[in-house]
Design brief:
Elements: E1 26-28, E2 30-35, E3 45-50, E4 59-62, E5 67-72, E6 81-84, E7 108-113, E8 119-125, H1 129-132, E9 138-144, E10 153-162, H2 177-181, E11 189-192, E12 198-202, E13 207-214, E14 221-224, E15 231-235, E16 238-243, E17 249-251, E18 256-262, E19 270-275, E20 282-289, E21 319-327, E22 335-338, E23 341-344, H3 345-350, E24 355-357, E25 371-373, E26 378-385, E27 391-395, E28 400-405, E29 408-416, E30 420-421, E31 426-432, E32 437-443, H4 446-450, E33 454-459
Length: 460
C-alpha cells in the first residue's frame, strides 16, 4: 500500500481517570470499530478496539489508586486483558488458560488491583494476541508519580504499525508461516496514536514529557529526533538516571521509553522524528513550531524521577538459569521437545512451531515450568539469543534488572520487563521472585510466541 500526505494536527490522548475502590468500575468493551488511520483520502479502517477506539481508553491513575475495570466482550471471539508491566496478583494478569478463563462473547470479567509502581505501562489482549493486538486491542496505562518532573506538557505516543491493503483495510494474513519463522508481522503503515504521519504543534522553549509505548506485534523502532536532544528518564516504566543517548533511541516491541524534550527549534520550523531500525527509514511524526515562542529556552529544573521501590536481587545468593533461544529461519534448530517428545524441525514445523526455549516448544499455557523457585528467591537469567532475529523477552508480574550485554556491564543497571535481545546476543538479568504464581515468560514478537517461543516461571 502506498500512502502519502500529512494528517491533520492531532496527537493528544484524552485524559481518563480509572475508577477507584468506591466508584463504579471503568467500562472497557473490546468491540469492532472504524478508525481513519491514513487520512481523509482513504476509507476508514475496520479495527477491533477497546470501546471501539484505537488506542483504547487511556487509563490514568495516581500512585496508590486501585484500578477497577469491568471488561465486557463485544467481539464474536473470546478475549482477555493483560496489564503489561504491572506487578499485580497472578489472578489479575489476564492470560487466558493460565490465570483466568477466556472472556466469552457477551460475558464480562472484572479486574481489580492496585499497581505498586508508578510509570508508563499499557494493556492489551492476551487471547490470539497476534491477531487481536494486530487489529488494535491495546491502550495506555499511566500511573502518575507523586512528584513528577515539572514540564509544560505531557504526551503519550502509542506507536504501532499496520499491514494494510490499498483500500486501507487490514490484511487478513495473521500468523502466516513467514511471519512466524522470520521477524514477525511487520506492517507498511506506522502510526502514532492511530494516526499516520501526524504533525504535533509545539512552541520554542517548551519542555515536554513524552511517554512512548510500542504496541506493535513485532516492529522495533530506532528513533532519531534530528536536531533535538531528548533525555531518557525511564525505561519500561522504571526510572533511570537521566541521560542523553549517543545514538538512536531503541524501543523494542512492547517496550516503553520516557523522554524529556526541550523544544529548541526556531518558530515556524519543522523537526522530524525518524525511524531507521530497518533498511528503509521514514518520518514517524513531525514537530511544527508555532509562530509565538513560549519562552527563550526551557527551564533549568530537575528532570530526575524518584528511585524505584522494586526489591533488589541478591546476586550472591541468586540461582542462575541459562535460557537459550533457538529456531526460526536461519536459526540452526535441529530438534526440540514438543509435548514431551523429541521431534526434528520438520515435524515441529508441520504443527506450526518453529521456535524453542532450552529445546522446549511452548504450545499451551499450562506446561512444565522453565524456572521453578520459592517465593523470595533471587533469580539470575542468562538469555542467549542464538537466532537470526531480535526477541523482546517479556516476564509477566515482575521487573528484571538488566545487568550486562555480551558479558559487558550496562552503563547503568536498570529495570526492564521486555528487554530486546538482538541476534546472537546474550544478556544477563536478575529479579526477586516475590510474586507467587505461574507467570508467562515469552517473546513479545507475537508471532514468535504463538510459534513456540514461550515458557513458564513458577513461584511457590
Amino acid at each position: 500500500m502506498q500512502v502519502g500526505g500529512i494528517a491533520a494536527l492531532h496527537t493528544v490522548l484524552p485524559r481518563v481517570l480509572a475508577a477507584g475502590d468506591s466508584a463504579a468500575p471503568l467500562q472497557l468493551t473490546p468491540k469492532p470499530g472504524e478508525v481513519n488511520l491514513v487520512g481523509p483520502d482513504f476509507p476508514a479502517t475496520e479495527v477491533w478496539g477497546y470501546n471501539g477506539q484505537v488506542p483504547g481508553v487511556p487509563i490514568r491513575l495516581t500512585h496508590g489508586q486501585t484500578l477497577d475495570a469491568l471488561v465486557t466482550n463485544g467481539l464474536e471471539v473470546p478475549t482477555a486483558v493483560h496489564w503489561h508491566g504491572i506487578r499485580l496478583p497472578n489472578a489479575m494478569d489476564g492470560v487466558a488458560g493460565l490465570t483466568q478463563p477466556p472472556i466469552k462473547p457477551g460475558d464480562s470479567f472484572r479486574y481489580t488491583f492496585t499497581p505498586p509502581d508508578a510509570g508508563t505501562f499499557w494493556y492489551h489482549s492476551h487471547v490470539n494476541a497476534y491477531e487481536q493486538v494486530g487489529r488494535g486491542l491495546y491502550g495506555p496505562l499511566i500511573i502518575e508519580e507523586a512528584a513528577p518532573p515539572k514540564v509544560d506538557r505531557e504526551l503519550t505516543w502509542m506507536i504501532d504499525d499496520w499491514r494494510l491493503l490499498d483500500d486501507a483495510s487490514i490484511k487478513n494474513d495473521f500468523s502466516n508461516g513467514h511471519d512466524r519463522s522470520h521477524a514477525g508481522r511487520i506492517g507498511n503503515v506506522p502510526t502514532v496514536n492511530g494516526r499516520f504521519r501526524d504533525v504535533i504543534e509545539v512552541q520554542t522553549g517548551e519542555r515536554i514529557r513524552l511517554r512512548i509505548i510500542n504496541a506493535s506485534n513485532a516492529r522495533n523502532f530506532a528513533l532519531t529526533f534530528t536536531d533535538l536532544e531528548p533525555s531518557i528518564i525511564a525505561i519500561d516504566g522504571q526510572p533511570v538516571t537521566p541521560y542523553k543517548p549517543e545514538a538512536e533511541i531503541i524501543v523494542g516491541a512492547a517496550g516503553r521509553v520516557d523522554l524529556i524534550i526541550d523544544m529548541t527549534g526556531e518558530p515556524e520550523s519543522l523537526t522530524s522524528v525518524i525511524d531507521n531500525f530497518y533498511r528503509q527509514s521514514f518520518d514517524l511524526v513531525k514537530f511544527a513550531y508555532q509562530k509565538a515562542p513560549l519562552r527563550d529556552q526551557a527551564p533549568d529544573t530537575s528532570i530526575a524521577l524518584a528511585q524505584s521501590s522494586i526489591p533488589e536481587p541478591d546476586l550472591n545468593t541468586a540461582t542462575t538459569h541459562n535460557v537459550v533461544l533457538a529456531g526460526g529461519a536461519m536459526g540452526g534448530l535441529q530438534q526440540a521437545k514438543l509435548n514431551g517428545e523429541w521431534m526434528d524441525l520438520r515435524q515441529i514445523a508441520r504443527q506450526g512451531y518453529v521456535w524453542a526455549m532450552n529445546d522446549i516448544v511452548a504450545n499451551k499455557p499450562t506446561m512444565p515450568p522453565l524456572v521453578e523457585v520459592k517465593q523470595g528467591q533471587s533469580v539470575r537469567l542468562v538469555i542467549d539469543n542464538q537466532t537470526a532475529f531480535p526477541h523482546p523477552m517479556h516476564l509477566h508480574g515482575h521487573h528484571m534488572k538488566l545487568l550486562s550485554i555480551d558479558g559487558n556491564p550496562v552503563r547503568e543497571a536498570h529495570w526492564v520487563d521486555s528487554p530486546l535481545v538482538m541476534p546472537r546476543q546474550r544478556i544477563e538479568v536478575a529479579f526477586v521472585a516475590d510474586n507467587p504464581g505461574d507467570w508467562l515468560f515469552h517473546c513479545h514478537v507475537l508471532e514468535h510466541h504463538v510459534a513456540g517461543l514461550g515458557a513458564l516461571v513458577s513461584i511457590t
